[in-house]
Structure formats: C-alpha cells, structure tokens
Amino acid sequence: MKLRSCKHCLILQVCLTMVLLSPHTVSAADIVIDVGTLAITQSGPLLAGANVVYSHEDIRTWQDGEKIQALIDSGINNLRYPGGHLVSFWDWEFPYHNAYANFWDPSYIDQLTEEKKEELQTEHANRMGLEDFLNICKVTGAEPLIGINMFQGYRNGRKQDSIDKAVRLVEWCKKQDPKPRYYYLDNEAGHQPTQNNHIPIEDYIPLIPDYSKAIKQADPEAKIIANLIQWNPVKTLIEEVGDHVDIYEHHWYYYNRVWGEFYLEDWRNEFSVSEQNNRINQFNNWKNQYDKPHLQFAYLEWNIGPAREVTGATTGTPFYQGLVQADVLMYMIRKNVYMASIWPLTWKSNNPDPEATGGFRSLIDPDTGQVTSSGAIFEAFSLAAEGRIVPLDMSTPNRVRGLAVQANFRDRLLVYLLNKTDQSITTELNIGRMPLKASYMTYTQGDPSYHGQVEEHPIESIGPSLEITLPDTSFVF
Predict the structure, then answer these.
(1) Could you tell me the sign of the dihedral formed by the alpha carbons of 468, 473, 474, 475, in that order?
(2) Which of 224, 217, 235 is nearest to 185 (CA)?
(3) How far, in Å, CA of 33 to CA of 137, rounded?
(4) If 466 and its partner were Cys, which of 195, 281, 429, 432 is the partner (CB 3.0–4.6 Å)?
C-alpha cells in the first residue's frame, strides 16, 4: 500500500483577522468541542523523527529517490544515526566491521589484517555511510542526530582514544552541510551490564563531563544528549553532570499488561500514561531542585512495543501501530517533549508477515521501500512543530482524546482527534472564527484489515462551526 502525499490537504486553515464569534450552545452532535483562546505553551520542534540503523540501510535502495520522497511526504524532521545499540560498535572511520564487533578488542585487532579489512569493506560496501546519511538529511531537511561510541573505549580501557575519536568525528561534521548540532552519548547505559554489552550507569555518568567538554571545545554549538536505561539514576545524572548535558532522552515502547503484548480494550480505556507522567514530572522537579533549567526532555527511541501474536492479546498490526503512535505523539506535545525519534526507520525482519508477527515496526517497509500508513500520521504532527497549544473544551470526552495547535506560521489551526471507542461519533467543532478553508483526514482500518487507510475529506463550513464524523477506532486530523 502506497499512500498519497497529504501535504496540502490535511490542514484546517483559519483567518486570524476575523472577529471572534460565539460558539453554538445547542447541538445534536454526540460531542461538542470548543476551541479556546491561544495558550502560551509551545510544542516541541523535533518530534517527527526516526532512527536510521546504518547496517540495515543499503544505500542502493535510496538511489531512485522514492525513500527520500517518503521522508519528505511524512514530514520527518530529525534522523538519528547510526541507530540505537549499534552506536556502541560503530567505527565511523572504518564503518565496515560486522555490526556488533568489538573493534578495539585486542584479539579482534590481531586478526584484522589488511586482507581482512578489504574483505569487510567489500562485503559491507553498500551500507549507508555517514556522508550518505548527511546528504539525505540535506535533501529532506531533517536535523541529523549523530551517535558517539563510548562503549569501545570503556570496554577496552581506551578512554582518551575514544574521546579523541569522538573529537575527530565532530571536527569532520563541522565541515559538512548540514552541520550536525546534536550528539548523543552512546545508548542505554545500564542495559545488560553483566553481558558486557553496555556501560554500567555508575561508570557512564562520570564519563559524561570529559566527553562533553571535548566535543564542545571542538564545536561550541554542539548539543549533548545523554541516555540511561533505568529511571531513578536520572536524578543523579541531573545533579552531578547536568551542566554538561543539554538533553536527557529516555526510551519508551508502549505496551499494556505484559511487555511484548498489546491489549486493545486496555488501550481504549486508558486516559493517562501514569508511568510517563511520573517520569516527566520528576524530571522537571529535579531540574528545578538542582538549578538546571536548560535541560530538555526527549524520547529518541519510541514506538508501540513488539505486540506479538498471543492468545487474548491484539497483534500489533500496522493499523494499531499507527493509532498508538498518534496517541503517543499527542501526549508528547501536551507534555512539552522537545525531540522524539521513532524506532526504527527500517528493520529487516526474518518474518515477512506483518499481521502475524507484530514485531519490528518500520516506518519505511524494508521490502517495498514505501512508507507505511504511519507516514500520514507523522506528517500531520510534523506541522505542529513549535506551534502554540490551544485548549479544547469537550462536552463529553469519554474515550475521545483531543489536541489543538495553532501552527507556527499562525494561519492554520491543527486539530487532532483520537476516537478510542468502537462507535462512530458525530462531532461539532467550534473554532470561534470563520475558516477560509477547511479539510480533514481520517485514519481507519484498511483493506486488508491490518493496514491503516488514509482518506481526505473537504468540509463545507457554515459559520465558525464544523461538523465532522469520527469513525470508530480512528485518528482524525
């Protein structure tokens, strides 16, 4: 399934010079939604991002321009490279090692002859290289996020060599177009420490200042991003090294009841994500407690969890993935999240059946190279970047979630509605002003049923109110 671009037809456009009119007080609609006055809160600038896993990207598949266009059509505004755990094994100066090779391990170095290096370079010659990646960012306009490999230096007692290697990377990046500004320090510190695959948290936090100072000396405009796999030590990170970090990012894979499973009825009845609420509230409290007002919050790996096919659970098909993604993106805007990158852009799975597996949730299908149905959802939310959040007053919210944003360019009102019920709902949307033009998009179950289906609809407005039907179990923009 290949979606049409919706770049110009998903927008509710409002003439801001009109006099405010009174909303309707009587309505036969199931739900009446009144759009309030402009709020101060601003939405994050870089929420529509994706992780590029360099060892899963064959640059030859990008040469016809279709994937480039897919990113543009999806509104992707940041790309994280070389991916998640892969950064801990990524040698930017020789990016041809096997994906998880400890390239500074003495036993590995001993067998890495010139002949072996030539074999590796031939075998992996078509991987997406760093220069390829930055060229893609330039064409699409996406902000590049570049990873710093700290793990190899830690694991092999070569801290200074590792810092020097990072500095060479930053100095090279400074000369590129676009010039990266954001550098993330390794990945998921504290995950699998007994397997010696990640830096333990108690060792990672003290390493941050030296890496940060060296990187910022090489490029004073650089922004440093840190990440832990556990939550409670974030307080220590903020207290002890918060001056050396610009963005703290956490990873969030949505699930309910049990990791790796998704229960549709639980999701329908969920009004708040208490665990994430607690984390963001604690983060903001710690910022204030330790006087680190500059720190921003991000989710640089997020998605619906694996949602495998399990008796009693709902398989995480592309359709449900899109609904959860819309739900999470609405949440991120409300909670003032600065930046987010979905995992992954593309992942090559051994099982090609998306309806059965509910495994990896690629934005670009690795087999067809086409954007999945989530592309329309990301495009819709990309338009909210740095917009102003507008309050909504919903008469009977039930299991309908709503968000409104006045776009940064100020002539468009963006309204996001998620119908979690299994019933179609008629909605009266009172925007308070006469629109010059209005249209909306619906994201519903497609054909075949596991796909999401995107349809565009014009709206004939009479006065400042619009009537919209929210299909059952749908996202409407």
Answers:
(1) positive
(2) 224
(3) 39
(4) 429
What tokens appear for 11 in the block?
A: 């927008």
Buried b (16+ CB within 10 A) or exposed e, 196-213: ebbbebeebbebbeebbe
In tens, the pLDDT along 430-458 reads 998 888 889 999 999 988 777 899 999 98
Compute the C-alpha angle 304/308/313, nearest 5°.
90
Q: What is the pTM of this model?
A: 0.92
Q: Is 79 helix (H, G, I), strand (E, B) or coil?
A: strand
Q: What is the mean pLDDT of residues 325-340?
A: 97
Token pair, residue 222, equals 């650089």
Q: Whose structure tokens read 């390239």? A: 103
Q: Residue 475 corresponds to which tokens in the numbers above?
A: 């996202």
End-to-end CA distance of the chain: 20
Task: Determine the pLDDT at residue 350.
Answer: 63
Coil, helix or strand at residue 241: helix
- Token pair in block for residue 73: 């059509």
Task: Round to whole Å and give the CA distance between 273 and 332.
Answer: 11
Element (H, E) at 318: helix 318-334
Distance set, CA 252 to CA 232, 318, 383 (Å): 15, 18, 23
pLDDT in tens, 24-38: 445 689 999 999 987
Q: How far is CA 32 from the centre of its chain?
A: 31
Give the sheet arrangement for strand 425-430, strand by strand.
392-394, 31-35, 425-430, 465-470
Residue 400 tokens read as: 């309908």
Higher pLDDT, 5 or 401: 401
Q: Are the C-beta atoms of 147 and 187 separated by less than 8 Å?
A: yes
Categorize the per-residue pLDDT at 8 as very low, low, confident or very high, splitting at 50, 70 and 90: very low
Closest alpha carbon to 55 in 351, 345, 304 = 345
Using alpha carbons, list the distances in angstroms from residue 48 to 62, 132, 325, 328, 464.
Answer: 20, 21, 11, 12, 30
How many beta carbons lie within 10 A of that of residue 253, not counting itself? Answer: 16
- CA–CA distance, 115 with 405 (Å, rounded to integer): 58
Residue in this structure with the two tokens 């230096």, named with its chain if needed: 153
- Cα torsion 69, 74, 76, 81: sign: negative
Do 406 and 413 contact (CB within 8 A), yes or no?
yes
In angstroms, the CA 31 to CA 33 distance is 6
195 band by pLDDT with thresholds 50, 70 and 90? confident
